[in-house]
Amino acid sequence: MTFTENLTSWYSVNKRDFPWRNTTDPYRIWLSEIILQQTQIKQGLPYYQAFVKRFPKVYDLAQASQDDVLKLWQGLGYYSRARNLHETAKHVAFELDGVFPTSYSELLKLKGVGDYTASAIASICFNEPKAVLDGNVYRVLSRYFGVDAPINTTSGFKVFRALAQDNLDVQNPAMYNQAIMDFGATQCTPKKAACNTCPLITACTAYSTGTVSELPVKIKAKKPKNRYFNFLVYLSKDKKTIVEQRKANGIWKHLYQFPLIESEKALPYNALKDRLDSELKVDFDLRLYNKQDVVHKLSHQHLHTKFWIIDLNQLPQKGISIAQLSHYAVPVVIENFIKDFNF
DNA sequence: AAAACGGGGAC
DNA sequence: GTCCCAGTTTT
User: Fold this and answer.
1) What domain range includes position A60?
2) Is there a single domain that holds both residue A98 and residue A171?
């Protein structure tokens, strides 16, 4: 049996059941693929179910506000996905009469849809013979064929894309693409690969050369940068606080937060007290909520976070009632604080 | 070509 | 701690 035949045979027995595998509706396939970008199924599944329930059709998503979409996306990360999701929904609903493009090349033009996602939708929904190339596929191909080109370089990408396309089952690209991804996710795993029960073992290059744990090759990421965040949690006598929307490019764009002072290093109590004295010009009580910095770790940044509680009679600017806080999409580090603080 | 972009899970 | 995840966009 060929690599491809072996794989589809394995899939016919070991296929996992997911809600997006019971449909070829491009809206739902697209939605699942965006949610699952750089996201494990275990984490993404509840979000998929929530989105389908809240927005059953692309038109429902198109009519929503960005704030509502971001709120439903809250906690999933990579928030540009949610912004692009909403933009594309509006584009499809209002300019394409609610009909998704039906080819790889047209799908690729949609915001948030790259090579992987266009291939996935084109193959799963329209049987177009385009091989997907995701983290699972890199791993399976690199090991089986013994390819040590780094997967996160342009040259490596070309090698693997050609290899992926060469081995695609052009008669059934939908099944093949899902088979190789499922195989990578459950059998040919990053660590502790299940070689002892692998149907491809006799022809696997990495297994025969003892290099399973060394493949695929990936250029290491840089060390994350340290940043120091001071969130100002205003608290007035009439149970109000202040939130603001992050407007700039960068992390958490368009999410909400307590007013933020970023400092070069840890901000001393007195430095903040003096600064607020001159800015507020009213009586207030300042205290640090967390004695230890909350270190919120992102892929490229470690955020050393302090939450400062500012009690005063009246807010210095327009605020919102504490009761409304739960309606705003906030970063996880803020959501954790809100739960812990319990207002 | 490299960097930016989140958060959670496995080990 | 380190690595990875049904990647895409921006610089």
Assistant:
1) 3-214
2) yes
Query: Measured between alpha carbons, how far is A147 from A150 in angstroms, rounded to an integer?
Result: 9
List active site positions of A: 33
* SS3 label, residue A321: strand
E strands, chain A, are 225-236, 240-241, 244-245, 256-257, 260-263, 285-288, 294-297, 301-312, 320-321
Chain segment A227-284, per-residue pLDDT in tens: 999 999 999 999 999 999 999 999 999 999 999 999 999 999 999 999 999 999 999 9
Residue A33 lies in a domain: yes
Task: Please indicate, yes or no, if residue A120 is contained in any of the structural domains.
Answer: yes
The gap between A239 CA and C10 C1' (Å) is 41
Residue A334 CA to its chain's centroid (Å): 18
A77 CB less than 7 Å from any atom of strand B: yes
- Total number of domains constituting chain A: 2
Buried-exposed string A146-165: b where 16+ CB fall within 10 A, e elsewhere: ebebbbeeeebbebbbebbe
Is residue A220 a part of any domain in this protein?
no
Return the closest nucleotide (C1') to the Cα of A81.
C8
A138 and A170 inside one domain:
yes
User: Please, which positions of strand C sit below 7 A from a protein CB?
Assistant: 3-11
Q: pLDDT per residue over A244-258, tens digit each?
A: 999 999 999 999 999
What's the CATH code of the domain at A311?
A: 3.90.79.10
